[in-house]
C-alpha cells in the first residue's frame, strides 16, 4: 500500500578480529534481504576492506554512498559480526545526514569458538556502538534479543517490524492532510492545533466545504468523469436500494474530492460529513471516504484531522487500511468487550457484507433520503491494533496511545458499520482515555502493530506514547509461522 523504500547497511569491523566474520556476515545479510525483497544500499566489497566500516575513511565512503541514495533510504541496519568500530558507525550516520531510524544487530558467540581466531565479542561491541550513537544524538532501535543471528526467526520479525517503523516515520514527517469544511459545531472533541502538527512535519490544507459542494453541483450526470466515478462506486459495493439520483450525486462529489486531493498532493482527508453535506447537497460522503481509505488515502469523519493522522500512521505500520470508529457501547456485562461503531465509512476490508445504504440516526434530523451513501456492514473476527494520536494544546505536545486486542464474532444486532472488540484491561484503557482528554474517536487496524507504532511515534517522532499491551492470545489463523515470515514480506 505504501512504498517500501531501501535500507542502508553498515557492517561494522575492528582490525584485531577475524576479517572472515565480516565476509560471512555480508553474504548472509545480502541473502536474507534478497529473500525478504528488501532493497539494500551498502558498500561494495572492494570499496573498503570486505565492504565493512572501520576507519574514518570508510565512514566517509559509506556516508557518501548513503547521501547519493538519500531519497530512497528510509532506515539503516547496523550489522556487528564482531566487536565493530563504534566511531566508524556513528561517524557514518553523522556524515550521511539521513535522520532515519537505525536498527543495531550483533552476532552471538559460540562457546566453542572463543579463541583469538574465532571470537566475535559483538555482545560487548553492541553496547559500545549504542553508547556512541547516544553521544552523537542519533536515535536507534534495538533487537528483541541483545545478540542474534540474522537467520533467527526473531530477528526476521524484528527486521520486518523495523521496516514498519521506517515507513511510519518517513510518512508522518512529510504528511499532508486535507481539512475539508469546518469542524461541526457539536464536536469540540476533535479540535486540534495546526501549529503543533506543522512543527512535526505534518501540513494541513484547508478548504471551505462550499467550494467542494459548489464545484460538484456544476457537474452533470453526462460528464465523463462523473460516469467513470459512478461505475467505480457500482463496482465497489452493492448499491442496495440506493436510487440512481443519489449515486450520481455521490459520483459528482467523488470527482471533486479526488481533484482536490491531486491538486494539493494530499495523503489523507478529514471531511465535514455532519450535517452540512446532507442538508446542502443531499447525500452522505461515506462511500467516497471508504473507497479512499481502501486505496491507501485514509479519510476521517467530522474534520477529525488527528484521527485521520492516526489512520495514516496505522496504515503505514501494517500496509493495510485503517478505520476511524467510535468507542461506542459496552457489550452487555463483559468488562473486556465493547462495541465499535460509525454510521459508516469504513474501508471495505472490514466489511465483507458491505452495502451502500442510509444513516438512520442522522436521518432523524436531516431526512433519511438525504443520507444515501452511508455504508452498512459488520466486521467479523480479525486481529486488532487500536490507537489515537492527538495534539495536547495546553502542553504543546503530540501524544498518543496504542494497543492490541481482537475483533470477535459475538452477536451484535444494530445498523451501520459495527464491530465487537475484545481488549484486555479495557476498563483501565477507558480510564486512561478519559483522564488524559483523548477523543471519543479511535482508529482500528486489522494487524498486530502496536509495538511498531510505539517505537516510531515515541522514539523517532518524539511524541508521548502510552502502550496498552495485551496478554498473549492463543495461537490462531492470524499468526504467521516462522517459515512464513521469510516469504510473506
Could you describe the 3D structure shown?
With 489 residues, this protein is of the alpha/beta class. The protein folds into two domains: 6-173, Rossmann fold, CATH 3.40.50; 176-487, no CATH class. The protein has helices at residues 20-35, 56-68, 86-96, 122-136, 153-173, 194-199, 209-218, 224-236, 244-263, 276-280, 286-294, 305-318, 360-366, 426-435, 450-460, 482-487, and strands spanning 6-11, 39-41, 73-80, 102-106, 141-142, 176-180, 203-207, 268-271, 299-300, 322-331, 334-342, 355-357, 374-378, 382-392, 397-408, 417-422, 441-445, 464-468. The strands form three sheets. It has a six-stranded antiparallel barrel. A five-stranded parallel sheet has the order 2-1-3-4-5, sandwiched between helices. Residues 472-489 have low confidence and may be disordered.
